[in-house]
Amino acid sequence: MHPETLVRDHTIYACVMGSRAFGLATDDSDTDRRGVFLAPTPLFWRFDKPPTHVDGPRAEQFSWELERFCELALRANPNILECLHSPIVEYVDDTGRELLALREAFLSRQAHETFTRYALGQRKKLEADVRRHGAPRWKHAMHLLRLLAGARDLLRTGRLTIDVGVEREALLEVKRGDVPWAQFESRMTRLAGEAEEAARHSPLPAGPDRRRVEDFLIRVRRASALQPAPYEEGVQGVVDARGVGQG
Predict the structure, then answer these.
(1) Do 87 and 121 fall into the same domain?
(2) Amino acid 195: pLDDT
(3) Sheet holding 11-17, edge to edge
């Protein structure tokens, strides 16, 4: 089955991410689309497994197969967790709604490590830009502050909020390069410290509810196995729910 067919016919959840989801869109902002597809279970019985992700078919579109998406979410991957909490949902079916109902199962204090580790990597890149070019890429600097503030608030409240709300103008000021580097550094350091403090008293559990997520994945895989699966042209026979070739 062609990867784009998986996205077209088997998407369970699709949303808009990036600046439009964060409340930071301007006239020149792209529309970044992200999604989750459920590859039919019989495809996993072949030697050639379905892809874990698909880039496209639309511009700025990227999708993950459900299992890979859940694996990354259980590791508190910032991009994946934010995707689950996008305020702009373009499509969701019954399985997608079940996935969204599991959002809190993925949240844990592990987010402190993953969010701040990603932020540290971005900070090093910005500092390298300053050394080489005299200024950072201010758009990346803006998103670094947004990420740190989001991590702090998640650890404080147990809820992940995507839209930056009243912080929009202050963040866009950074994007325009209207904030001195020293002031940006001070703000970045303060947010990192606040996130660390929030992690010590967070209402979030130490780790995600892996068992709950795994039960969901097994159930949807089993349900998919019991459904007639479309096969590529030229494939002989149909594999039934027991994996026995008929035809």
Answers:
(1) no
(2) 96
(3) 53-55, 61-65, 32-37, 11-17, 89-92
